[in-house]
Amino acid sequence: MAESKTHEHSKQPFNLVEEPLNLSVLLDRGWKIFEEVDNTNEALNSDAVQIKVKLGLSMLEEASRMVAQLNLFSRNEELEEIATADLKYMLLPALLGALTMKKINRDKRLEIIQTAQAYFVDFLKRCKDYNVSDFELPKSVDENREPDAESSLAAMGPSPVDLVSMAAQRRAKIERYRQKKELESKLTDVQRAVESGQADDEVTTTLLPP
């Protein structure tokens, strides 16, 4: 695996919180907010939930901008060339799409759906570029839209529900791959420690997952 490009990235200012947040923290907090919103028993259209949605989207959007600045992903790379620590950033468009679908605004419902769809399609394109799995990409919104059919949901191609399902499957596969690589890395560290005679029970227990 390649060396992570994110560890050298200095902390960036973030206007919704007091302290600057780095890329990893932005993703982790945005992801946590999505999980909280996705699992809440509170009404989705409540002010408290919508404030969380807005904050989570701001964090994930900032993280996405940082990823673009760092050039973490390239169509010329293979999945194996991405540093294990950077794999989680492949999930950003999927998380952005899923959290966008949590926005409630009746006057902008079509705009929200189209924005979420664009995120999901971006995520699926990234998965296809890295051969995460073999599948046919849905046609873009522009390719499917009839002239003067701005308000027609039928012209949007695959439904958001279909895209959510596809993105969730690929997201789970990337997460499993990342966990597998992390485990392989830990096992390699243990093996080297044992072979060098420097390993004891405490070191081995620390390196191995619980």
TrEMBL record:
Residues 189-210 are annotated as: Disordered. One of its GO terms (molecular function) is protein phosphatase 2A binding. One of its GO terms (cellular component) is cytosol. It holds the Pfam family TAP42. Gene3D superfamilies: TAP42-like family. It comes from the Eukaryota. One of its GO terms (biological process) is regulation of dephosphorylation. Belongs to the IGBP1/TAP42 family. PANTHER family: IMMUNOGLOBULIN-BINDING PROTEIN 1 (PTHR10933). This is (spotted green pufferfish) hypothetical protein.
